[in-house]
Write a structure and sequence with these properties.
Helices cover 79% and strands 0% of the residues. The chain has 132 residues and is mainly alpha-helical. The longest helix is centred in the middle third of the chain and has 28 residues, at 40-67. Bound molecules: fe (ii) ion (2 copies).
């Protein structure tokens, strides 16, 4: 389970923090659904949501970094593209039913780890830019 934390993950932009919290919440829900094999359909629905929401959030955040002239704006954008590529692959395999739940869990754990690290290390670099 991933938990959002103001001190290490706050970006200085309340809207983006709210979006991160939502992403974490949905990631946790997906993990729970995956663990209880009964709710594979629910897991699929959450994945549908995440597919849409992650893309939308990244766009919002990229605009925000440009607006505040954040020096890592490009790096952030590239990282988002990489994540979406990984996520899309996961999503497609899930949709086609080619994924064992073991593999789904493994891939999911990687995506989750990526998200936590990305928010804490990259997205938080927005904070000093907002303060200026
Ligand atoms: Fe973000
Ligand atoms: Fe980001």
């Amino acid at each position: 389970m991933i938990i959002w934390d103001e001190a290490t993950m706050g970006t200085g932009v309340p809207e983006l923090d709210t979006q991160h919290k939502k992403l974490f919440e949905k990631f946790n829900e997906f993990s729970e659904a995956l663990a209880s094999k009964k709710s594979l359909e629910a897991a699929g629905d959450i994945l549908d949501f995440l597919q849409f929401y992650a893309k939308w959030h990244f766009g919002q955040e990229e605009d925000c970094m440009n607006k505040y002239k954040c020096p890592i704006a490009d790096q952030n954008k590239k990282a988002h593209a990489e994540f979406l590529k990984k996520f899309d692959r996961f999503y497609t395999e899930w949709q086609t039913g080619n994924m064992t739940s073991k593999l789904a869990q493994k891939t999911y754990n990687e995506l989750e780890l990526w998200l936590v690290n990305h928010v804490a290390r990259t997205d938080t670099q927005l904070r000093p830019c907002v303060k200026k």
